[in-house]
Amino acid sequence: MPHIILDYAPRLAQIIDIAQLCDLLRRAAIETGVLPLAGVRVRAFAADHVSIADGNPDFMYLDISVRLRGGRDLATRKAATETIFNAARAYLAPAMDTHPIALSLEMRDIDPALSPKCGTIRDHLSTGDPA
Asked: What is the pLDDT of residues 65-112, one digit of tens each?
């Protein structure tokens, strides 16, 4: 049940399509081969208030948090982190060429013993991913 959460400066939504980025990251996560299709969830939240570096209101950020059920080895997590980060970086590249934007990503394990799950998404998945 990987959760991908985007926390971003609200001004960023004026220069990129956040919904498109969410979908891109969903597809990148699935393409890693280690994050299950039925479990991938991507959501984005603009910060209500930000103050960055010297306070210049033109400065923006995108912080990506990937929460992943524990059990995967470090090499697998590193490869998935790199794939998702590279997808975000490529998407943001045109905006980063002309705007001051900080991009970061952190992947964290969720302890399966402390994270009960229940859901019916798998029961409703089509046979193919409409990605």
From this structure: 999 888 899 999 999 999 999 999 999 999 999 999 999 999 998 877
Amino acid at 120: T
Is residue 60 classed exposed, middle or buried when 0-12, 13-18 and 19+ CB atoms within 10 A define those classes? buried
Closest alpha carbon to 104 in 89, 123, 125, 118: 89
> Residue 86, SS3?
helix
Percent of the chain topping pLDDT 90 = 71
pTM of the complete model: 0.86
Distance CA 130, CA 67 (A): 24
Tokens of 58: 């033109």
Of 95, 100, 105, 8, the closest CA to residue 50 belongs to: 8
